[in-house]
């Protein structure tokens, strides 16, 4: 019997990317799957545009695969956050008829951050749809039609597999679509950034085409078994980034395998989400230090504190002055210093 999949996509002021992502998702050659878009308090026309997309009237600009109006969802279910969290929705009302695709749109009144926004979609899927797998997918991605088929085949072959990640390409690398962004993940505590992508920047010639266990999977496209999601959700402390690395670390500690599946493929626009933050030098170092403290030894944590003061802080100072006193960069710089100071003195993490 085919395994059910719930696909959770987070949108925040990015409907153009979201509809292109959805256009590829609804062409996936696997059934059954259900799509949940969580709108994280968008202030643009995202909700209106998603309604227009479902009506079939919108012309979708695509860069990877041609748009197919025939597979678009015609059954749209909109839920306010409170109703979605309560889970008092009939599965039949969400799924629609056998002849139509459905889309659940959860409307948040504000931006809850990436991790908690995804958690809302996961909780809804668990309470209403009862899926076997949950796919977390960035809205600035385009997927291959065989994405689910390839990963679920692997997941069903070994009950100890808990998380799977596809091969991820740059959506556009100087006009190329075959440049790797992610072909597995490494965790190296003594680097400035402890988590790295295998194969990043390399042209794909088949050098990373073997299925293998990996240390972490990218949250850009992240398939997990429901039993893992029931045991733990993403850490909402992280507003944007790191939650995928920590989740994989925790899964491995509980005895699950984290696996890279190269025959499953995704193209990622990479920098789109970061650009929307408008903070050119921000890396959210307070949450990064929190991640190091919570997941590694005291010695590793002390090492990263030294790195921050000896390398990262001076580097950011140089970046600010090289920008000629740009006020936007200064605000980002000062805000980051405020967050770091608060974290180091009080152990708290700001918004």
Structure description:
The strands form two sheets. Strands 1, 2, 3, 4, 5, 6, 7, 8, 11, 12 and 13 form an eleven-stranded mixed beta sheet that branches. The protein has a two-stranded antiparallel ribbon with strand order 9-10. 42% of the residues are buried. The protein has 351 residues and is α/β, with parallel strands linked by helices. The chain folds into two domains: 5-275, Spore Coat Polysaccharide Biosynthesis Protein SpsA, Chain A; 285-346, no CATH class. Helix 1 links the parallel strand 1 and strand 2. It has helices at residues 15-25, 46-55, 81-86, 91-95, 114-129, 147-157, 226-231, 243-253, 272-275, 285-295, 298-322, 327-346, and strands at residues 5-11, 33-40, 75-80, 102-108, 133-138, 141-143, 161-170, 180-182, 185-187, 195-197, 212-213, 221-225, 257-268.
Uncertain parts: 272-282
- CATH domain class name of the largest domain: Alpha Beta
The tally of domains stands at: 2
Helix content: 25-40%
Proportion of beta-strand residues: 15-25%
Order of helices and strands: EHEHEHHEHEEHEEEEEEHHEHHHH
Class derived from helix and strand content: alpha/beta
Instruction: Look up the CATH topology of the largest domain.
Output: Spore Coat Polysaccharide Biosynthesis Protein SpsA, Chain A
In CATH terms, what is the architecture of the largest domain?
Alpha-Beta Complex
Largest sheet: 11 strands, mixed
| Average of pLDDT | 90
- Intertermini distance: 44 Å
Radius of gyration from CA coordinates: 20 Å
Number of strands: 13
Bulk shape: globular
- DSSP summary: helix tally: 12
Offer a few descriptive terms.
351 residues; alpha/beta; Spore Coat Polysaccharide Biosynthesis Protein SpsA, Chain A; 2 domains; eleven-stranded mixed beta sheet; two-stranded antiparallel sheet; 12 helices
């Amino acid at each position: 019997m085919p395994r059910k999949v719930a696909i959770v996509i987070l949108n925040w002021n990015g409907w153009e990317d979201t509809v292109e992502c959805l256009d590829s998702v609804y062409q996936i050659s696997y059934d059954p799957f259900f799509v949940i878009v969580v709108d994280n308090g968008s202030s643009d026309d995202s909700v209106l545009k998603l309604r227009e997309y479902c009506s079939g009237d919108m012309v979708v600009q695509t860069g990877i695969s041609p748009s197919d109006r025939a597979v678009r969802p015609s059954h749209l279910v909109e839920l306010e956050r409170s109703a979605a969290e309560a889970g008092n929705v009939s599965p039949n009302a969400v799924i629609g008829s056998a002849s139509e695709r459905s889309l659940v749109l959860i409307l948040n009144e504000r931006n809850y951050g990436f991790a908690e926004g995804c958690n809302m979609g996961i909780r809804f899927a668990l309470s209403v749809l009862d899926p076997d797998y949950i796919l977390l997918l960035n809205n600035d991605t385009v997927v291959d039609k065989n994405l689910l088929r390839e990963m679920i085949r692997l997941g069903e072959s070994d009950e100890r597999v808990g998380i799977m990640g596809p091969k991820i390409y740059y959506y556009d690398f100087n006009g190329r679509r075959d440049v790797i962004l992610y072909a597995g993940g490494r965790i190296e505590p003594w680097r400035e950034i402890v988590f790295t992508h295998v194969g990043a920047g390399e042209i794909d010639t088949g050098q990373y085409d073997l299925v293998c266990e990996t240390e972490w999977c990218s949250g850009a496209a992240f398939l997990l078994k429901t039993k893992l999601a029931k045991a733990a959700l993403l850490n909402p402390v992280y507003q944007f980034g790191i939650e995928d690395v920590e989740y994989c670390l925790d899964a491995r500690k509980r005895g699950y395998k984290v696996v890279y599946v190269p025959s499953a493929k995704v193209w990622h626009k990479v920098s789109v989400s970061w650009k929307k933050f408008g903070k050119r030098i921000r890396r959210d170092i307070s949450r990064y230090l929190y991640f190091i403290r919570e997941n590694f030894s005291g010695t590793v944590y002390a090492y990263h504190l030294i790195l921050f003061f000896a390398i990262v802080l001076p580097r950011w100072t140089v970046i600010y002055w090289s920008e000629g006193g740009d006020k936007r960069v200064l605000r980002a710089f000062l805000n980051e210093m405020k967050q770091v100071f608060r974290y180091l003195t009080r152990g708290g993490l700001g918004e």
